[in-house]
Structure formats: C-alpha cells, structure tokens
Amino acid sequence: MLPIDVAAHSSRWRRRHPLDKAVLALGLTALAVTLPPWPGAVLVLVTALVLLLGPAGVTLRKVWRAWRVPLGFCVTGAATLTVQVGAPGAFIALAPHGWEHATQVLLRSSAASLGVLLLAFTTPVTDLLTWLLRLGVPAPVVDVALVMYRMIFLLLESVRRIREAQAARLGHTTRTAAFRSLAGLGAVAFVKAFDQAGRMQRGLAGRGYDGTLRVMTPDLHVSRRFVLLSLVLLTALVILTLVLERLLP
After folding, report:
1. Model pTM score
2. Considering all CA atoms of the chain, what is the largest pairwise distance in Å, rounded to the nearest integer?
C-alpha cells in the first residue's frame, strides 16, 4: 500500500464517518479558493497543517512526502504567470504584476491541496467509495474506481520487482543502460496491466460477479458535534480573514 493509504487506515479519525471529514476538508479547500490569498489562503494552509499534525495524528514527514508532488505542480504553474510571450520589444519578458499573480495562485493552490490531503490522510478509499455509493453514485462507476484502486497497487508492485531485476543485471550503471531499462520497464508494465486486468476479470467471473463489488467497511455514524465544530471553524476562518484584511496592508 502507498504511505498515504497506510496513514488513512491508521488515522485517529479512521472511525469517523466520511461526511464528517468531507465537510471539514472540502470546506477548507473551498475557502482556500474563494477567500483572498492574503490572509485567507495562508490561514487555511496553517489550519489544515495543524489539523493534520495534531488531531489527525499524521507525522510531518508523511505530510511533506505527500504534499511535495502537488506543491511542485503549484510552483510550476505559478511560475508561468511571471512571464509573457510576445511582449513589445522582446519575445519573452516579465509580465506586469506577474509575481503578485503568481504568489496569489501559489497560496491558493497550495492551501487547497492541503485541504484535499486532509481528507486523503484520514479517509480510506474504500470508505469514501462506499459512502458515494450510498449517496446515489451509480454502482458501475464505483466498481470501476475500486478496480482501478486495486490495479494501482498491483502495477506498482510489478514495477518495483522489474526495477530490482534490472538493477541486479546492472541495467542502471550508465545513462544509455538506464534509458534502455526505462523503455523496457514501460513496455513490460503495459503488457502486465492488460494481463492482470484479464486475470482479475476471470477471477471475478469465477466468484459469481453480478455487477457489484462488495467491500466490508466498518459501520460509521455521522457525528453532529464534529460537523458543527467544523462549520464553526470554517466560519471563524472567514470572519478572521475579513478582519485581518482590513487591519493588515
């Protein structure tokens, strides 16, 4: 399993209903997008980080390992706003107010990504998909998502074994050998994906698959107190943002 999935299954909020955590996490994500970047997105970012490290019980190392990838996309996307193509007198030049716009986008996107990670670190995928099924999402859609979720781990395990075999055969000693090994890895992984999909289909058919994948999930109940506290926290962030926006330059 991926580290984020292990953390979700061992989270302190594992026994909470997905709706409880969705109200809090998705609420923070919505505030990060709608509130002013300063100080709104900053407050959301700090709040999500405190919730992850505190009540959710996720270590800083795990948060950083999961956050650094989306954060890299945020930085890359924001950096493109600092330049403009076809400027008068130059093909590429600094965009007017580019750094200001880039900073705003970076604050919003990084805070929103932490809000999503709060849900991912505390809610296993099986719980989330089962909840969506009860909300009325078509069963075939949920089944496809569950199968893809399972296939991810199978493919990652296959890729790991192939890389270990290539390294044992000195397939990464030179740059040329590394590129050759990478091409072989992609080809073998592509073939294995189809092979494993076929095996899974035959296995489901042999077990009397009737169009619905049944997954055992714990019996969870919505906590009105948790939802109410989440709404109070979100409201407090909105009020604090409006107050600080007037006080701070």
Report:
1. 0.76
2. 70
Q: Specify the length of the chain in residues.
A: 249
**Closest-CA residue to 106 (of 139, 73, 141, 57):** 73
Cα–Cα distance list, 7 to 46, 187, 224 (Å): 20, 32, 25
Residue 24 CA to residue 106 CA, distance in Å, equals: 22
In tens, the pLDDT along 130-177 reads 787 777 777 777 777 777 777 777 777 778 888 888 888 877 788 888
Question: Using one digit for the tens of pLDDT, what is the confidence trace for 15-39?
Answer: 888 888 889 999 999 999 998 888 8
Q: Which tokens hold the place of 201?
A: 């289909």
Tens-digit pLDDT profile for residues 46-81: 999 999 888 888 888 888 888 888 888 888 888 888
Q: Is residue 20 within 8 Å of 227, Cβ to Cβ?
A: yes
What does the domain layout of the chain look like in residue ranges? 3-123+219-247, 132-206
CB atoms within 10 A of CB 204: 15
